[in-house]
């Protein structure tokens, strides 16, 4: 009688869609890029992603293309916009903006971490050679700011009658304030609540006395 093995035969996992594979690799690479900068090895990234190193080079033309994809992913605002859109409009405007400030500053912190890591190694420039695959090029900065700005404008809409300016102009100014407050080397960074109170009510606790 033939002896049968008690160990079930291993089945090969179904092939992953190329775009999903690239996204999976970038997700694994991002925290390593922040930690090690451009010196992170593709072997380390492969281990973090649970794949062979060769899989990386089937998904990306070279390491520069992978680093460019990591920068592009850091600049993507999809998750940020989704979080802004989920903020309840039933809250007072100050609470809405405080929540929005936390979301936006988290997004900018991630951009700053990846940018700083790559800039320190002189690897921040757009890859020029070889030409990266579709999806590797860095997105336009203004385009990356437009969607969050529109989501911020929606947070002002319920209070239009009480606003000094249009929601679009206020969203632009609020976004600019957040960008300025998060610049490197800013002394004693303001809290989210302080930023919102300064934006909504100004620097004075009460109107100045008439002369």
From TrEMBL:
Keywords: DNA-binding, Transcription, Transcription regulation. Residues 19-78 form the HTH tetR-type domain. Residues 122-141 are annotated as: Disordered. The keyword Transcription applies. Residues 123-141 have a biased composition (Basic and acidic residues). Coiled coil: none annotated. It comes from Streptantibioticus ferralitis. InterPro entries: Homeodomain-like_sf, HTH-type_TetR-like_transc_reg, HTH_TetR. This is Helix-turn-helix domain containing protein. The lineage of its organism: Bacteria, Bacillati, Actinomycetota, Actinomycetes, Kitasatosporales. It comes from the Bacteria. Residues 41-60 bind DNA.
